[in-house]
Write a structure and sequence with these properties.
This protein is an alpha/beta fold. The chain is 34% helix and 21% strand. The chain binds ligand BES, manganese (II) ion and zinc ion. This is Probable cytosol aminopeptidase.
Length: 504
């Protein structure tokens, strides 16, 4: 979709469909140059009638399509309500834009216009509003159709051009900044979404590595992919124990965005890259098993974060690490009870081969320390227990540094990729003690599943500030949301990039 910004007036716009936003009580606007007054008079009092009939009053759940070709140069207007002005928050713009655009797309519009909403409360910055508009648009219209045959594709409707209308020239530069950021962020999110949705027979560890190289080449950053031989040399016994059951070769992907004028901090972002999780010898039941292609969401999001950081030219060194492998059962697979030696030297009893995410992350986290990072961030579809605890609205956040967690809470509200903290009290550590090794990979009594994942990982970061994000419940959605189509959400890309943008 081509997005362009332009200064102009809604009532003069020549277009197939124009989307206009209204807060409640918009008809009480007394100013003569407001959009309401101008549109209403061009439409012969139609807007006033709609308000009087309570058909459209700008309520937060109201949307109304009207045919306007007899009155305006625009063929159709989509009126979208924003609710009460005092209740406005940034995510509303993403949602209402997403909704509005899907609506005009579905009636066959290929070129749409969106007018900047009037009367947005002062404290919201123009750049943020425009970033939100672009995110709402690009994220809502995402479709994965690479595996649909050409013939089927022809039936699809698509918005090809989107024009954003700005009232005054004065805000143009600010608005353009927001548009640019919105485009870079949403293209990073959609890139990650595509990798996640893509089935495991395409989206293999080798494929992820190729994608990483492609991103690195396009953005001129460093990328190194370690082969199985090199992974063995590094003695990543925990990672290798997961890869053992599969014929797909594992890859350890290292991305390094190191801008010349960087702050003296390195942030390492680690993502779980299980391209398919069958459970291994502790085989999962077949219901919904196909969804376990999304077990590499953490890894795909790391690629998205690196792409976003580099394209936004953030002044920080950001290193991305992705241990990528399948988790399959076979004659060569790890067996429950096997003990493996991790990269850190700690021995791990693998009591359950389905708790594989923490095994591959253990080695990646230990490896991360060599960059002497100011912070390590890991994200993973780690536990079903996190879905039970928080559902699809919050990322499970754990860590050893309250300041870092506060930064995530703030970025969570800005991006609406919200986090919720679970405790990592030392008393939990009791539960992962092993009789035969340093630790075991599952708990003793079945409780606190998401926390025990975090407790396990904590053993491998030492005293480095660290955050663990369990995205099992948020990385995938089974229903369409306003700007999150059914499937992979790409959650984490905007959140982590926002933390990096806020970094002091
Ligand atoms: N990838 C799964 C977690 C998961 C489950 C993600 C459902 C998304 C949806 C993870 O590897 C796993 O299997 N975890 C086990 C851990 C248990 C054996 C301690 C789980 O959650 O059951
Ligand atoms: Mn598993
Ligand atoms: Zn898994």
């Amino acid at each position: 979709m081509k997005i362009s910004l332009k200064v102009g007036k809604v009532e003069n716009e020549v277009a197939e469909a124009v989307i206009v936003f209204f807060f409640e009580k918009f008809h009480e606007d007394k100013g003569p140059d407001g959009v309401y007054k101008k549109l209403d008079s061009a439409l012969g009092g139609m807007l006033k009638d709609l308000v009087n009939n309570k058909e459209f009053e700008g309520k937060g759940d109201q949307v109304l399509l009207i045919h306007t070709s007899k009155f305006l140069k625009a063929k159709k207007l989509l009126l979208v309500g924003l609710g009460k002005q005092d209740d406005f928050y940034l995510d509303l713009i993403r949602r209402r834009v997403g909704n509005g655009l899907k609506r005009v797309r579905d009636i066959g519009t290929s070129k749409a216009v969106i007018a900047m909403p009037e009367r947005i409360p002062q404290k919201f910055k123009t750049a943020d509003i425009f970033q939100g508009i672009v995110e709402g648009a690009e994220l809502a219209l995402f479709k994965f159709d690479k595996l649909v045959s050409e013939k089927e594709k022809e039936k699809e409707k698509e918005i090809k051009e989107l024009t954003l209308l700005l009232e005054s020239r004065q805000d143009f530069k600010e608005a353009q900044k927001g548009v640019d950021a919105g485009e870079k962020l949403s293209s990073a999110v959609n890139m990650s979404r595509e990798l996640i949705i893509k089935p495991a027979n395409f989206s293999t560890p080798t494929f992820l590595a190729e994608k990483a190289r492609e991103i690195a080449k396009a953005l001129r950053l460093k990328c190194k992919v370690l082969s199985e031989r090199e992974i063995k040399k590094l003695r990543m016994g925990a990672f290798l124990s997961v890869a053992k059951g599969s014929k797909e070769p594992p890859k350890f992907i290292i991305m390094d965005y190191h801008p010349r004028r960087a702050k003296p901090h390195t942030i390492v972002v680690v993502g779980k890259g299980i391209t398919f999780d069958s459970g291994g010898i502790c085989l999962k039941p077949s219901k919904d098993l196909y969804k376990m292609k999304y077990d590499m969401a953490g890894g795909a999001v790391v690629l998205g974060v690196i792409q976003a950081a580099a394209s936004l030219k953030l002044p920080l060194r950001v290193v991305g690490l992705i241990p990528a492998t399948e988790n399959l059962p076979s004659g060569s697979a790890t067996k429950p009870g096997d003990v493996v030696i991790s990269h850190s030297g700690k021995s791990i009893e693998v009591q359950n081969t389905d708790a594989e995410g923490r095994l591959i992350l253990a080695d990646a986290l230990a490896f991360a320390k060599r960059f002497k990072p100011a912070a390590i961030i890991d994200l993973a579809t780690l536990t079903g227990a996190c879905i039970v605890a928080l559902g699809d609205q919050a990322i499970g956040m754990m860590g050893n540094d309250q300041k870092l967690m506060e930064m995530f809470r703030e970025a969570g509200m800005q991006t609406f990729e919200r986090v919720w903290e679970l405790p990592l009290w030392k008393e939990y550590e009791e539960q992962i003690k092993s009789d035969v090794a340093d630790i075991k990979n599952i708990g003793s009594n079945g409780g606190a599943g998401a926390i025990l994942g975090g407790i396990f990982l904590k053993k491998f970061v030492g005293d480095c500030p660290w955050i663990h994000l369990d995205i099992a419940g948020t990385a995938w959605t089974d229903r369409d949301k306003d700007y999150i189509p059914k499937g992979a959400t790409g959650v984490g890309v905007r959140l982590i990039t926002q933390v990096l943008r806020n970094w002091k």
